[in-house]
Write a structure and sequence with these properties.
Elements: E1 5-11, H1 16-31, E2 34-40, H2 43-46, H3 54-61, H4 64-77, H5 82-95, H6 101-112, H7 128-139, E3 150-153, E4 156-159, H8 169-183
Parallel strand pairs: 1-2
Antiparallel strand pairs: 1-3, 3-4
Protein name: Disulfide bond formation protein DsbA
InterPro entries: Rv2466c-like, Thioredoxin-like_sf
Length: 202
């Protein structure tokens, strides 16, 4: 068997494009010898000093809660809770279309079996230092002109890929091979085309 390759994936629970990429990388785990470790970043923290318009600024102000709760779960109960809690939050936000942050957090905690008291950390900065540390561990590798997801593998990191819908099975593996080959070239910076569809959750 091929040696397993460690992959690190940074996400913000509220980002639909990170969710799409996370479903893809889960498929890649099935067809390629990789093992993913999951980390939080924060779009709210990333954009805190930017004026991106009233609507987006309000979205960012409202989006601290979920990532703070994931961080609190990791700090208080262990890293093994990061991915299950992300799945529970993301399923409700992105597949279910739920928008009430407090209700989603409460339901997600209940689903995975974590204490309901963790919901209180949505409104406190108690673990923001840990959140910033995780954020910078990923984002400092790719610069300030990108968002989430960020993926790191074998000494290099990249933003994206931004895809819809998420590839599955062997196709997921082929996309991984291509993305990894491009990202591994030190002089590669950007490959992009206009996005013509919203996230397709399936």
């Amino acid at each position: 068997m091929s040696e397993t390759t460690a992959v690190d994936f940074w996400f913000d629970p509220i980002c639909p494009w990170a969710w799409m990429a996370s479903r893809w990388i889960m498929e890649v785990e099935r067809v390629r010898p990789i093992e993913v470790t999951w980390h939080v970043m924060s779009l709210s923290y990333l954009n805190a000093e930017r004026d991106l318009g009233e609507e987006y600024n309000q979205l960012m102000a409202d989006s601290w809660g979920p990532v703070r709760v994931v961080t609190a779960a990791r700090e208080l109960h262990g890293e093994q809770w990061v991915k299950p809690l992300y799945d529970a939050l993301g399923t409700r936000f992105h597949l279910g279309g739920e928008t009430d942050r407090q209700e989603v957090i409460a339901a997600a905690l209940d689903e995975v079996g974590l204490p309901a008291s963790l919901a209180a950390y949505a409104d406190t900065d108690e673990f923001d230092a840990a959140l910033r540390k995780s954020h910078h561990a990923g984002m400092d590798q790719v610069g300030t002109e990108v968002g989430t997801p960020v993926i790191a593998v074998e000494g290099y990191a990249f933003f994206g890929p931004v895809m819809s819908p998420a590839p599955k099975g062997d196709e997921a593996g082929r996309v991984w091979d291509g993305v990894r080959a491009l990202a591994s070239y030190d002089g590669f910076f950007e490959l992009k085309r206009t996005r013509t569809r919203d996230p397709i959750f399936d």
